[in-house]
Specification:
Structural class: alpha/beta
Number of strands: 9
Radius of gyration: 22 Å
Distance between the termini: 49 Å
Shape: elongated
Oligomer: single chain
Number of helices: 3
């Protein structure tokens, strides 16, 4: 660990926690969508003496349901995920439980959902959404999408969520759902 590899450096629990955060981000940048900070722990051995410690980083495997004993959990493996289908709802209403869209348009692999008229240029939305079907999940692409969609100043609310594809049990695929709530005054350069 770069922040802890200097001999003589004092033990600091806050630095170890920051290290856990950095490792988690790195894992999420490399496709591990379900990886969480709680999987990481440090074993600190102070028995060496002379005010020194031996520090080990341990990454625990997730617990998964046993395929035979359904009521038991067993250690599994961390999985790398790829992005599958990408849905973009351009008329999302956060106050309604109803998905609210009756029409769809599939354009360059993106699935746009809307009512009657698609009021936004699909290419403009795709240029500002950094998710690509078949590519590995990367948290930085999600963050970049939030920033760029926010920069358009066209949407009052933006949410990007991922759901494992229930129809694909052989591959680790996440379908992406982008819920966009238009602002009351819409930026006309997206039409």
């Amino acid at each position: 660990f770069p922040s802890h590899d200097t001999p003589g450096k004092q033990y600091d629990a806050d630095l170890l926690d920051a290290e856990r955060t950095k490792i988690t981000r790195e894992m999420k940048m490399n496709g591990y969508y379900f990886f969480e900070k709680d999987y990481i722990r440090f074993d600190v051995d102070t028995s060496i003496g002379n005010r020194q410690i031996d520090l080990k980083c341990i990454i625990n495997n997730p617990l998964v349901r046993d395929s035979i004993k359904k009521d038991s959990l067993v250690p599994g493996h961390h999985k790398i995920y790829r992005v599958g289908k990408i849905f973009i709802n351009t008329q999302f209403n956060p106050k309604s439980l109803d998905f609210g869209c009756t029409d769809t348009l599939t354009y360059n692999g993106y699935i746009f959902t809307y009512n009657k008229t698609l009021k936004f240029n699909p290419e403009t939305l795709m240029d500002n959404l950094f998710l690509h079907s078949g590519k590995g999940y990367q948290i930085n692409r999600v963050e970049q999408s939030y920033r760029r969609l926010g920069d358009l100043k066209t949407f009052r609310f933006t949410n990007i969520s991922f759901v494992p594809d229930p129809n694909n049990t052989k591959e680790n695929i996440l379908d992406a759902y982008s819920a966009l709530t238009p602002s009351s005054k819409r930026n006309t350069n997206l039409s």
